[in-house]
Specification:
The complex is a heterodimer of chains A (about 110) and B (about 120).
Chain A (H helix, E strand, L loop, with lengths): L8 E4 L5 E6 L12 E5 L6 E4 L13 E6 L2 E6 L8 E9 L4 E4 L3 E5 L1
Parallel strand pairs in A: 1-9
Antiparallel strand pairs in A: 2-6, 3-4, 3-7, 5-6, 7-8, 7-9
Chain B lengths: L2 E5 L3 E2 L5 E8 L8 E7 L6 E7 L4 E3 L7 E6 L4 E6 L8 E11 L2 E7 L3 E5 L2
Parallel strand pairs in B: 2-11
Antiparallel strand pairs in B: 1-3, 3-8, 4-5, 4-9, 5-6, 7-8, 9-10, 9-11
The chains are: A mainly beta (about 110), B mainly beta (about 120).
């Protein structure tokens, strides 16, 4: 049972836009701790995708964007490409656990 | 470019101790960043294990805290993880990572490639 809740799977056709939600509580996202997003291609390590709400590391295309409101956050991927097929994780800080927390992960399938 | 590389036994016996090391290159563990461990059981999600800072502060996942030790070795620019009294539930890919703490943002920007540790007799 993850502290942050994500849908197990989402899918979309090439070129479409998909969103992945991440729901937390008042001790993490709702306490205004930033939400960060990671992409994990099966068999490889997670890769930082978005940090500090809206920042993208060098090399991450601007098709990836994020937003949050209240106790939830979301990742949007525009112009879906086959290479976007991966698992996506949200992550934040929880002040009750005094540590980092992850969502359970969402598998993105590009149809 | 910071690079991290995990090393350690891939097989540990039940009730034994899991010991892993993460070698850091391209950056110093004496920096103000945190040095962390994250694990992922095969086919499952990510779980934060704990962090250590250059100042000697450690933070552990409460669910694992009683069995954990994370330590830094400044002379070798590496850090280590020990998990005592392991069971099959500790079987996972173990990743070391650098964690940045900037205001209300705590995130992992560099990751090792991961190493699979299996707990089995």
């Amino acid at each position: 049972q993850s502290v942050l809740t994500q849908p197990p799977s989402v899918s979309g056709a090439p070129g479409q836009r998909v969103t992945i939600s991440c729901t937390g509580s008042g001790s993490n996202i709702g306490a205004d701790y930033d939400v960060h997003w990671y992409q994990q291609i099966p068999g490889t390590a997670p890769k930082l995708l978005i940090y500090g709400k809206t920042n993208r590391p060098s090399g991450v295309p601007d098709r990836f964007s994020a937003s949050n409101s209240g106790t939830s956050a979301s990742l949007a991927i525009a112009g879906l490409q086959a290479e976007d097929e991966a698992d996506y994780y949200c992550q934040s800080y929880d002040n009750i656990l005094s540590g980092s927390v992850f969502g359970g992960g969402t598998k993105l399938t590009v149809l | 470019q910071v690079q991290l590389q995990e090393s350690g036994p891939g097989l540990v016996k039940p009730s034994g101790t899991l010991s892993l090391t993460c070698a850091v290159s391209g950056g110093s563990i004496r920096s103000t960043d945190w040095w962390s461990w994250v694990r992922q059981p095969p086919g499952m999600g990510l779980e934060w294990i704990g962090d250590a800072s250059h100042s000697g502060i450690t933070k552990y996942n409460p669910s694992l805290k009683s069995r954990l030790t994370i330590s830094l070795d400044n002379s070798k620019n590496q850090f280590s993880l020990e998990v005592n009294s392991v069971t099959a539930a500790d079987t996972a890919f173990y990743y070391c990572a650098r964690k940045r703490a900037v205001g209300t943002a705590y995130y992992f920007d560099y990751w090792g490639q991961g190493t699979l540790v299996t707990v089995s007799s």
